[in-house]
Amino acid sequence: IQSFNNGAINKITLVVKGDVHDTAGEVKSAVVEYLEWIKDTIGCVECCIRHVLAVPGTVELSWVQSLPFCAVHVLKEAYAHCKDSTSLYGDLLHHVGSLLAELFKRTHSLQVSLVKLLEKLSITGAQLEDHVHVLCSVCSGLFEICGIVTCLDVKLVIGLWKAIIKLCSQHIRLLRDRFDACPLINSLCEEIRQGYQYLFELSLGADALSLSQGDDKTFSKSCKILAFQMKVLVALLRDFTDYLGNCEKNVLDLLLVLHRYLPPSLCAKALPPKLESEVRVQVVSATAPILGHLVQNRVFRAALTSFAEERIPEDRLPRLLVQLMLLDMLPRCEADVIEFWLSPVNHMNPTPTRGLLSAIFDSVQECEVEMQIPAMLPGVMVAGKPQRQVSLYEFTTTHLCGFIGACPAKHFSVLEHTLLENVLRDNDLSYVIALDCWCFLVRYGTAVTCRDQVQTLILAFKQLKKISHKLADKLSFLIHRLVKFMSPDHQSALVKQFSPSDEPCLWISLGTSCLNDSLSESVRHILISWALSVLQTPAVKALEVLNTSRLFADLLKDRPLSECMSHPQQVLLVNNVCNIWSVVLTSPQMPGPIRELLIVRLLQVTTYLLPDMEAGDILKVLTIVQSSVKTAQTSDVAVAAAGCLLSFGHVRIAPLFQSQVLNRLCQLFNSLLSHPDPLVHHRALEAFVQFASETMYVEAVEACLQGNEALQIRVEHFQNRIPYQSSQKEFVLVDYLISQMSQPAQEEAVATTGVGSTAADVSVEVGDEGITVRSADATTDVAVESCQQSASEHPAKRARLSTSSSDLTVPASQAESSRPETYQKFLETLSTVARDMELEFRQAGPPPPSFVDAVKEALTRISFCMSSHNNWFDSLS
């Protein structure tokens, strides 16, 4: 037996190659002789095995220690010889074909006998190292045979894999920590991957190719083979779950590939419904047990939750689906397993391991294309109702909320930290999903939980507003939604705790629509009185104007002006807004970002005040907006101007100013309709069409379009709802979204006051004492802080605080102030550097990098912080 390979098989090779005999007859005679020798050797080994099988009961391994390994060696060489026979024998094959067929049958018979012997083996005495060595050698040998016979007969492969699994399961106590199952698992993963790839190619070719290549029988047979291989893989993972070596990543890659081939993956091909359903059932039924066996595996956890930039784009959606499947399993697991995934600790790896919830939100951020299409998935089954298809957004949110409903209380701190982290995240998808999940948390929790959550978040909001106004606005929207779920008593207590008289800026940010009707009305009256008193201040601050403008814009958006305030208050509001417009018109030296923001906020209020404004004031507004649209660094002013023009159709203009106002109006419409920003262009079309259908000044409509035939056609098409016809190739939504994601992300320009920090600059700590928000550089927005303080403190003290914010001096009272040349020169230098830097990068071609916007944001914040004199706008260039 030991000379089996070196004897007959090697001699056959030498004979066939002509190294020993020269004539064909001698070659044939020698080959036949050696093949008979091989057959006899196989028969001898099989005879030994049958003799052992005749013994009743089990067979002690120590009795036949060398026999299984010997049989495996013979099988491997015999199958390999049969596999290579075509290339080895060449023209001689038809002379020895019958002998090779008989040799193959003998080999298969030996395999059957060996499998029966392995089933009878037992170890009743002491477990020796030799026993372990024999079992490991047999398992490895059978695995090598599987690789040989794969191309010979599928049934042989199935039988060998069954033998391996039975042998491992029978002696798992000996093999668990000694046998290396990693090569077997890696091989199965590769075979399954290739098998499904062939399967999809087969199904896709069913229409184009002949039926023999793509019929249902072939597909079903291939599905059954792959299903068996998946069962073998699951069995190996079950038996060797703690000793998998380095194969966990390959298992995860297999799961991702399988989900990649199925809808709604973007790279999935269209399959016949029956075939798709059959494959989906197999994939889903195999994924759950695989995840169940790997749920406590550290390497698998790291592979599933790690964030890698080089990740394959096609695997983003499959990864999210696998993560959600594992999240669904956690409520049924032990407490330590839940903590293992939610609060991972890996002392062996210096790189921190992310929790599963954080990893899911990371995957959500990567699946922006699938969210926007949207990808459709089976929804949750509801008793008595058919299962419906839901969007990926709803699918993800539903599973997250399902876990929140079953999450143990001890893990709420992790849950709250993750939700808050994503509320403050600079990604819209993560933001809105975190909002919805938090609303679910308080809605289905107790009333006390909702109250405590709102109170804690308001305290965090007050901290965060000192650091980043942009992030504070995100948090305020969350609080706005949560307050709606509070009981009426808790809402009343909240208003008493955070009184609108003492903290008007807080309620301006939150809005009053989240309160019940009676409470909302009382808070609204307090805020209106405060805002009007602020606007009447002789030296009103720019930040106070921004806050009051936001308040009135929010109030007038939901109800008419006459329902919000009394007639004297209406007149007072209109006069104050017109006065501020006059100050803006006569203060051209105001810093660019602040001027743009102020104009945007004023336009939002002016939209609702146009019917009550004088024609001369309307002319001032149009003059300011027209010049600002041309010089603005962002499109915010243009968008706000288009929104304001939506209300211009019902405006009646005094004859004295009619020609001037209409002329300015035509110029503004022309600027907006020819604006390069698609959003501005679309909003301008909406405003112009509405203006044309409502206004009594028909000549203004004609003047706007006169001499521009292309614009006339575009307006007509928009009015008749005719889609825009591009001269480029056909528009494909998926390709467009992918191209947008592939471009470098650009940070937003300054949109609100005090935006100097992003989510990456802010640390959020959720502890027993509440939420603590800290800036990375421990700086605070002095301007925003002073705005909050000045609203509620004594007038004399508020006057002393006026050095921390800008003043808009209304015509009623002109305050005198000095203009320090040091401040002026310093700010002029900063403005010049920022302007030159932006110009340099814009001339290079691509959009300027994000740090250019950061420089402009920093300039805005410095301008606020250094505004220590009343007429500071006039001293800045």
TrEMBL record:
Cleavable signal peptide: none
Highest taxon in the source lineage: Eukaryota
InterPro entries cross-referenced by the UniProt entry: ARM-type_fold, DUF4487
Region (Disordered): 786-820
Pfam families named among the record's database cross-references: DUF4487 (PF14868)
Compositionally skewed regions (Polar residues) per UniProt: 801-820
Protein name as catalogued: Uncharacterized protein
